[in-house]
Amino acid sequence: MPASDSPIDHRRHRQLGRALAGEGRRRVVAIGVGGALGTLARYGTERVLATASHGFPWGTFAVNVTGSLVLGAVLTLVLERWPPTRYVRPFAAIGFCGGFTTFSTFVVEVDRRAWAGHVGVAAGYVVASLAAGLVAVTAGVALARVGVPRRRGHAPATSGAGAPVHRAAEPLGTAERTNR
Q: pTM score, two decimals?
């Protein structure tokens, strides 16, 4: 079969190879190591906080809320407080928190409880998870800003009333360009 008839687009493979070469490859390793550690931490937490099949899923609730706190703190430290770094954000925010927290398990647990007739538990779990997650990420941001001096030349965005504005995390490509 001629190369042009091949179902594999070799140009895309070369582009991927260049993207993962050198610095990009080290970031991928940082994400993978962080993800492996986060996954193991989630597994351990869920084993310790085992839940009855249709009771409130404390294990997943705990990892998602704790992960929100950690993510708020880590991103604030990386983006506002610490000098630019190449590996902390990929390791801790993308890898560890990505491996530790679990949206898919959250959704499955809500669905299983609702289908088993435990609609109140399912609804309470959704509301509690969203509320606690928002409180936790806000607390993580606040904790990271207490006692850690702001990076020189960096002032957080503020609203017209002077209150800090919580900006969404930068797109993944932006972090690579700014070496955070």
A: 0.72
